[in-house]
Amino acid sequence: MVKCEYCGYDSGTSYSQCSLCGDTFCRIHKLPPDHQCVKIDNWKNEDSVRKAQATPFIPSDIWNIKFRKTVIDKITPLFNRVKKATLLLGVITAFVLGIGLIILGVFLYVGNRSGHFPTFPYAGFLSMSCGFIILAFLLKCLKLS
Q1: Distance of CA 66 to CAs 9, 15, 60, 73, 126, Å?
Q2: pTM above the 0.85 mark?
Q3: Mean pLDDT, the chain, integer
Q4: Cβ distance 29 to 4 under 8 Å?
Q5: Where are the domains of the chain?
């Protein structure tokens, strides 16, 4: 994708290359005075003026830049909040799952020993181990971030 050297607008296929400095610009900044060209002194030459004005101006470019500045810049903080909320939801889910497995393991272990829940001998131990592993991994991830 081609971006304007002056404003950073991603103009896609509608771009112009300055005949003086050779940089690429959107249709709004295609003329040397609009992008503060370093070789603006040479712009008085009639040849370069004709080349710079060869591409017609499209009003949709102004709308695209205004859209980017108004809508996209307002949406970006919202996406950042959604990412944080999703991360928080994942942390809460992992915590509840880990605690739930530990509690289930305790019930299975106690129930198996007393004969109330006849399961295979290590069901409670495996469930508690999984719960502790999830909590340990969660703790490690939270320390890293």
Answers
A1: 11, 17, 10, 10, 59
A2: no
A3: 77
A4: yes
A5: 1-57, 81-145
